[in-house]
Amino acid sequence: MSEDNRTASEKWLEDRAPGFKALPEPDRRAIFDFAFLWSLFESQVMGNFAQAGRIRAKVDEWAGAGNLDAGLYDAELVYFRNRYFADGKLTYHFDFLFLRNSDHPELVKAVLEGANNDPRDRMLALLMIVWRLRNNLFHGAKWAYELRDQRENFTHANSILMRILDRHPA
After folding, report:
1. What is the largest CA-CA distance in the chain?
2. Is 156 helix (H, G, I), strand (E, B) or coil?
3. What's the Cα-to-Cα distance from 50 to each of 18, 100, 101, 134, 153, rounded to whole Å?
4. How far apart are CA 105 and CA 125, in angstroms?
5. Is 99 exposed, middle or buried (0-12, 13-18, 19+ CB in 10 A)?
6. How far apart (Å, rounded) are the C-alpha atoms in residues 124 and 109?
7. Are the C-beta atoms of residues 122 and 81 closer than 8 Å to each other?
8. What is the residue-level pLDDT of the chain in tens, covering all 170 positions?
9. Whole-number Å distance between alpha carbons of 24 and 85
10. How buried is residue 74: exposed, middle or buried, by Cβ count under 10 Å (0-12/13-18/19+)?
């Protein structure tokens, strides 16, 4: 981005945030978009309060109503399966999701490994991954590696959030 088009906050981040200056514009854009999309998702879908248990309840609600349509998210599931499970085992990236017990780590693992292909569980696993990306970004864990190599994570998370917002408006 040219010097003239940068906002004051971008200039500040470039000067002070580790690795931000080297972060390519498409990476920045995906992360900025994620912040807005998550905020809209939390407002419109989660009633201004997201947490793992409430996300699970929302997925159960959609499944019960017959409008889950988990197949619409297959491309994102393939991406996250390839990122977090390869050569018959979980990749080192998986540990950096920092899944907590309330985040259904065993279900997420089973879905990523392909051992569980239940539509409800696939949708819940995807949203738990998006939830952890959100927490790791907003609580600072992503800064440990200066937000590097996150564009695809956030691009796929953004696709999930947009599709959910389109399918399940407030």
Report:
1. 51
2. helix
3. 29, 15, 16, 11, 20
4. 9
5. buried
6. 12
7. no
8. 555 678 999 999 999 999 999 999 999 999 999 999 999 999 999 999 999 999 999 999 999 999 999 999 999 999 999 999 999 999 999 999 999 999 999 999 999 999 999 999 999 999 999 999 999 999 988 877 778 899 999 999 999 999 999 999 87
9. 27
10. exposed
If you search the block for the tokens 């994102």, which residue do you land on? 76
**pTM confidence score:** 0.94
| Residue tagged 């998550």 (tokens) | 38
Give dist(CA 76, CA 73) in Å, integer.
5
Q: Which residue has the tokens 């997201």?
A: 50
The contacts of residue 157 (CB under 8 Å, 6+ apart) are 34, 37, 76, 129, 130, 133, 134
